[in-house]
């Protein structure tokens, strides 16, 4: 390996020396041309220039100048090792600086004290705290006066108490709670910060007091929002409890989480204000980082206390304890990553642990806000709920991605100078935004389509309205699937384009591939096109009973290429549209049901007609069957003369799907009427004359033959059904 490297270096030195000679001679030639333009260059120089212009010489120089593959690999390995050592040395230097900053803390505070006394007219640091307390007290006073005025106005405009079952009033209560909580804070901010800006202060004083006021206001906004969401200050009004808790939990859990949120945000904004004050007082970066990391121990302590004392699991199991230990280890590792200066890994770890609970809590709040009185999970306005829920999730994730992008640009400025790396980072971040926007659009369209399907399922009206509703229930699921595929395809193409992938060849290749697939799957294309025409012709809808060839059943659902039919005996058929052919729809408008009854030859036909007419009138009066009958059962007349009796024809017109039930009821009523009036049904009878033995044999044979023919007729009828 060393010999190869030495040879490569020798070749490079020779090439560099030759090029140096060429450049030197060229410059010398130019100088001599300026002094004596008539003097020609030496012949050897001309020959060297001609050799350098030769393509073969140029190719040989390029080949010799390129390092061997082994040398390149060794250089890349050395580069990666060097990068790792540089990163490791930076971490060690950062930690060493933090440790060395510990003895310098008293000196930094002394320097800050002298800076304050020099810049602010000899005032001590305590004067800054007194000034901060004065303006905070001014804000609290203005807030107190505003609360008194607001309280009097609310007592004059008292409304009845609302409960969770009264959704409109509950929304009104939540809105009033948000206004009553946020408006006094706005007054506090205007009174404190506005009064501070009304005077002229030294620049350093403004840089010290304003961060503390802003931190106080931000902390109070967070805890007031937590109080609204958790409903920790529920009151009694007119004997009824105002319930406005947006996260389902009991009072103990609500109080627990409210206190932890107050502690955590209090320490966080205190650290933020302290960091701003130290920056204004020119603390060294290491001392500033040391103090901030020390305050970060308070955040870690609150997080660990929350993990071990949260009231969600009253019965501590082994899995629960293992989860607590893993969370403890995870939080400690995050704090160590922060102290080590590994900002990118730290923020990725923070996002991994806080983003899922935040997104879940956001969804819970929105669903609880839109919960109806009957079903807490059923939204009154699905489209608005989806817009708010997904919109909030999109905003949260976009803010997290934007902050992570800022961290990457800040910590990897050298990496961002590389065009390829910069394009990949921008493409990934932009892809996240595109996918979030596609998810928002899809869920909005899905919620709108589902709302329309649900409305079509429950709305009534005349037959035309029911027909429109059935058609909507048939077509909207297909439209929903088509939109899902379209949005996904467009989003993926935009993400690939953002990553620098040329999507033009992909689209062209997909077109060629589609043509090949089209030739190879003509049956699939036929099914899809046939389905489109079936839907256009409104041949059948979901819930209708149809028959096509050997397939019959109730239409349950559709896909792009097939329809699912549920047979009345239970089996479900998945039939491609291309094989349906002519469709017999048995669920449109009305159904005429015909049946035959055989009576004996000595029956009075007119009497039978009167009895059946009475049965039909009784059926119309029946509260269960009457609304389903369009034309009641009637006797049409004599259909045929059978072997054992007269075949009488009967018919009735009913609404689709009810003919079998009404026919069975008509059978029972006709039998009762015939029995009460002495009308007998036809039955096989044989009269034989002769000696007794022969008569018995003939009668038995005739009876067996009649029974066999009856069984054959019943079997044929079953096969038809």
TrEMBL record:
<dbReference type="Pfam" id="PF21088">
    <property type="entry name" value="MS_channel_1st"/>
</dbReference>
<feature type="transmembrane region" description="Helical">
    <location>
        <begin position="205"/>
        <end position="227"/>
    </location>
</feature>
<feature type="transmembrane region" description="Helical">
    <location>
        <begin position="290"/>
        <end position="308"/>
    </location>
</feature>
<feature type="domain" description="Mechanosensitive ion channel MscS">
    <location>
        <begin position="524"/>
        <end position="588"/>
    </location>
</feature>
<dbReference type="InterPro" id="IPR006685">
    <property type="entry name" value="MscS_channel_2nd"/>
</dbReference>
<protein>
    <submittedName>
        <fullName>Small-conductance mechanosensitive channel</fullName>
    </submittedName>
</protein>
<feature type="transmembrane region" description="Helical">
    <location>
        <begin position="506"/>
        <end position="525"/>
    </location>
</feature>
<dbReference type="Pfam" id="PF00924">
    <property type="entry name" value="MS_channel_2nd"/>
</dbReference>
<feature type="domain" description="Mechanosensitive ion channel MscS C-terminal">
    <location>
        <begin position="595"/>
        <end position="681"/>
    </location>
</feature>
<dbReference type="GO" id="GO:0008381">
    <property type="term" value="F:mechanosensitive monoatomic ion channel activity"/>
</dbReference>
<dbReference type="InterPro" id="IPR023408">
    <property type="entry name" value="MscS_beta-dom_sf"/>
</dbReference>
<feature type="transmembrane region" description="Helical">
    <location>
        <begin position="127"/>
        <end position="146"/>
    </location>
</feature>
<feature type="transmembrane region" description="Helical">
    <location>
        <begin position="478"/>
        <end position="499"/>
    </location>
</feature>
<keyword id="KW-0812">Transmembrane</keyword>
<feature type="transmembrane region" description="Helical">
    <location>
        <begin position="391"/>
        <end position="412"/>
    </location>
</feature>
<dbReference type="InterPro" id="IPR011066">
    <property type="entry name" value="MscS_channel_C_sf"/>
</dbReference>
<feature type="transmembrane region" description="Helical">
    <location>
        <begin position="424"/>
        <end position="445"/>
    </location>
</feature>
<feature type="signal peptide">
    <location>
        <begin position="1"/>
        <end position="33"/>
    </location>
</feature>
<keyword id="KW-0472">Membrane</keyword>
<dbReference type="InterPro" id="IPR049278">
    <property type="entry name" value="MS_channel_C"/>
</dbReference>
<keyword id="KW-1003">Cell membrane</keyword>
<feature type="transmembrane region" description="Helical">
    <location>
        <begin position="261"/>
        <end position="284"/>
    </location>
</feature>
<feature type="domain" description="Mechanosensitive ion channel transmembrane helices 2/3">
    <location>
        <begin position="482"/>
        <end position="522"/>
    </location>
</feature>
<dbReference type="InterPro" id="IPR045276">
    <property type="entry name" value="YbiO_bact"/>
</dbReference>
<dbReference type="GO" id="GO:0005886">
    <property type="term" value="C:plasma membrane"/>
</dbReference>
<keyword id="KW-0732">Signal</keyword>
<comment type="similarity">
    <text>Belongs to the MscS (TC 1.A.23) family.</text>
</comment>
<keyword id="KW-1133">Transmembrane helix</keyword>
<dbReference type="InterPro" id="IPR049142">
    <property type="entry name" value="MS_channel_1st"/>
</dbReference>
<feature type="transmembrane region" description="Helical">
    <location>
        <begin position="178"/>
        <end position="199"/>
    </location>
</feature>
<dbReference type="InterPro" id="IPR011014">
    <property type="entry name" value="MscS_channel_TM-2"/>
</dbReference>
<feature type="transmembrane region" description="Helical">
    <location>
        <begin position="329"/>
        <end position="354"/>
    </location>
</feature>
<dbReference type="Pfam" id="PF21082">
    <property type="entry name" value="MS_channel_3rd"/>
</dbReference>
<dbReference type="InterPro" id="IPR010920">
    <property type="entry name" value="LSM_dom_sf"/>
</dbReference>
